[in-house]
Amino acid sequence: MFFKNNNLTSITFSPSFNTENITDFTRTFSTCDKLQSVDISHLNLRNAEYLAHTFSFDKSLRTIDLSNIYAENLTDMSSTFYKSNSLTFINLTNFNVPKLWQMIHTIYECTSLTSIDFSNFKAP
């Protein structure tokens, strides 16, 4: 959706933004060099199966909040934050993904990452 958008610095989705039938979020925000903040708290991820590379190669993103997300069909989060070198904090509190099986390289080469909150993270 926003892949390689180098003008985008911030994005917030309203509750009326309908993502109910989207199953693949692969590379949605990947390689957005100036992206600093993303609020996806209103996105419906219940039918999402893939979040692979969703925030990979984002050079300016510092924190990401994925708390309180229920993605009942999510299976693949591989390389979700791959090489997001400015990322310092990931909030996965109450992240509920009962079918998740792939997380390879999820935080690979996130050289500034200092903290991840896994409180009540629910995955097989």
Overview of the molecule:
Helix content is 0%, strand content 12%. The strands form two sheets. A three-stranded parallel β-sheet has the order 3-4-5, with no helix packed on it. A two-stranded parallel sheet has the order 1-2. It is globular. With 124 residues, the chain is mostly beta strands. The model has no long low-confidence stretch (mean pLDDT 93).
Key phrases:
0% helix, two-stranded parallel sheet, mainly beta, 124 residues
Please report the number of helical segments. 0
- Protein structure class: mainly beta
Domain count: the total is 1
Distance linking N and C termini: 29 Å
Order of helices and strands: EEEEE
Average of the residue pLDDT scores: 93
Unreliable segments of 5+ consecutive residues: none
Query: Within the largest sheet, what's the order of strands?
Result: 3-4-5
The counted number of beta strands is 5
Give a summary of the structure in a few sentences.
By secondary structure, the chain is mainly β.
What's the arrangement of secondary structure elements?
Elements: E1 10-12, E2 37-39, E3 63-65, E4 89-91, E5 115-117
